[in-house]
Amino acid sequence: MSGTTPWISWTILAPLAGATLSVLVARRAVPIAVIASAATIVSVAATVGQVASAGAVSSAAGAWGAPLGITLRADGFGALMLATFGVVGPLVSLQAIGRRGGPRARRFLVLWLFAWASLNALALSADVFNLYVTVELVTLAAVGLIVVERDRRALAAGLRYLLLSLVGSLFYLMGVALLYAATATLDTELLGERVTPEPASWTALALMTAGLCLKAGLCPLHAWVPPAYTSAPPAVSALLSGLIGKAPYVVLVRLWVEVFPGSLGGGAARLLGALGALGIFWGSLLALRARRLKRVLAYSSVAHVGYLFLFFPLGTAGAWAGAAYVAVSHAAASASMFMAVEVVERSVGHDMLDATKGVAHRRPLTFVALGLAGMSLMGLPPSGGFVAKWLLARAALERGEWWWAAVVIAGGLLSAGYVFPILRGAFAPQRRSPELRRAPRHAELVSLSLAVVALALGLIPLRLMALLKLAGRS
Amino acid sequence: MSVWMLYGAAAIGVFSAGVFGAFGATTHVVRRVLGVNIMGGGVFLLLVASARRAPSAIPDPVPHALVLTGIVISVSATALAMAIARALSVTRERDSPAPPRDEPPR
C-alpha cells in the first residue's frame, strides 16, 4: 500500500468546494462550476493514472487512521467507476453550462457537483458506514435533481423515490449495526477477515442486500424507476440512469466480494441472478410496449440493472469484467440516448415514439448519436455493449451454466425490438416536412460525444480490463 | 438473557413498527416520513446498545459517532421530504389537475 496521496482526496474536495461556492456566489455560479469540474477531472485522471501504474492507492482522511478515521481507497474497480463518473457526468453537465446560467441551469450545476462529490466518495470508501453516508448523500442530491424544475409530476416522483430510498438505506444501516455488534469493525477488509458464518452475519447480509436492491431498482423493486426517469428533465434522467443508478450496485458488489467472500455461489446469489434475468425480460417487454421515448429508455434501464446482477450467480473474474463493462457502457449509451431525446422533445414538442418521424434529415447529429448509442444498448459489435454481453455470455458458458448465456442473448434480441422502431421512424419518409422548433445545439453535441464514448468502449476493452484486474486490494 | 439482548429486541421491535408505518395501509406522506424516522430510531437504539456490549466498563465510542452522523442524515432527509411534500401541495392547489401526459390506460 503506497503512502498518502493528495489526488484521491481532491476528487471529492474539488466538486464539493465548487458546489458550496456556487451556492454562496450565485452570480458567478457557472464559471465556478466550470473551474471545479476541470479541477475534479484532473484529480480523477491523476488518481486513475496512479492506480493504473502502481496498483491500489489509499489515504487516511485528516491523517486519522481506522477505526475512528475514514480511509479512502482506490482499487481497480473504484478507479473504473471514478473514470466513468468523470467522463459521462461533465459531458452531461455541459448542456446546463450552454444554457447561459439561468436559475435552472445554476440549480442543476450545483446539485450535479454535490452528486459528483458523493459518487466519487462512494467509489473510494472502504468502510461500510461511510458507504451508507455516501449512498445517502447521492440519494439526497439525486432527489434534488429530479425536482429541479419544480414540475408537479417530478415532485411526486421525487418524493416517492426519496421515501423508498430512505427505507432501503435504513435496511442497509440495520445490517451495518448488526455487523458492528458482531465484529467490532466497519472496515471492509477487516470485516472480510472477521465475518463468520453465523445467523447475525446472514441477517446482516440479507438486510443490506434487500435495501440496496430496492435502491438499485432491481425487478420487482423497480416501480419507482419509470416515474422518476420520465418526469425529470432529460439531462437529469441521463445522470440518474447512467451514473446514480449504479451507486447502490457498487456498494452491493463491495459487500458480496469483500465483506462476505464465501457467500458467492450460494442460493442467495442464484436468487439475485434470477431476479436479474426477470428484470431483463420484464423491463424489455415493458420497453417494447411503451409509447414514449423516455419511457422506453426508463424500462431499458430496468433491464440493464438486470444484467449487472447476473454477476452474482457466476462469481468468476470473467463475469465480473462483464458486469463492470455493462455498468460503464450503459452509463455512456443511456446518457447519450436521454440527451438525444432532449433534442427530439425540444424540436417536436413531445416525446411520443412517432416524434422521431422524418426528423433524421433535419437533426443528423442527434440521429447518428441515437444510432451509435442504440447499437451499444442492443449489444451489436463493435460497441461497448457488445463487449459487455459477450464477456457475460462467455463467463456463463465457461461455468457450464448455459441458461445465463441464453438470458443475455435473448435480452439483446429484445432490446433490438425496442431500439429499432426509434431509428426506423427517424428515417421514414414523410410527405410534409414537419415544423421543427429550435433545439439546443450543445445538447446534440453532448449526445453525440457520449455515443462516441459508448462506441469507443468497444474498441479499447483491453486497457480497461487491465485496470479491473487490479481489483484485489493489497 | 442479558440487558444487551433486551435492548436488541426492543430495537428490532421499533424498526419493525417503523417499517409498518412507512409501508402500512396509510398513504399519507407525513405518516410515511414518520415511519421512516421510527425505523431510523430502531437502528440507532441497536447501535447505542451495542456500544455497551463490550465486557470492559468503558463504552465503545464508535457507535455513538455513527448515531450522531445518522441523526444528521435523517434530519436532512426528513427536511427534504417535507419541503417536497409542501411544494407538491402548493402546486396541487394552484394548478387545476392537468390531464396526465402518460401512456393511455391499457
Short summary of the structure?
The complex is a heterodimer of chains A (474) and B (106). With 474 residues, chain A is an all-alpha fold.
Largest sheet of chain B: none
The overall strand count of chain A is: 2
Poorly predicted regions of chain B are none
> How much β-strand is present in the residues of chain B?
under 5%
The largest chain-to-chain contact, stated as pair and per-chain residue counts, equals: A-B, 36 and 45 residues
User: What count of domains describes the coordinates of chain B?
Assistant: 1
User: What is the overall shape of chain A?
Assistant: globular
> Shape of chain B, please?
elongated
- Assigned CATH class of chain B: Mainly Alpha
Percent in helix of chain B = over 70%
CATH topology of chain B: Helix Hairpins
What is the radius of gyration of chain A? 21 Å
Task: Classify the helix fraction of chain A into a percent range.
Answer: over 70%
Order of helices and strands of chain A: HHEEHHHHHHHHHHHHHHHHHH
Task: Supply the CATH architecture of chain B.
Answer: Orthogonal Bundle
| Annotation field: number of helices of chain A | 20
- What is the end-to-end distance of chain A? 6 Å
What is the N-to-C succession of helices and strands of chain B? HHH
Strand content of chain A: under 5%
**Ends of chain B: how far apart?**
57 Å
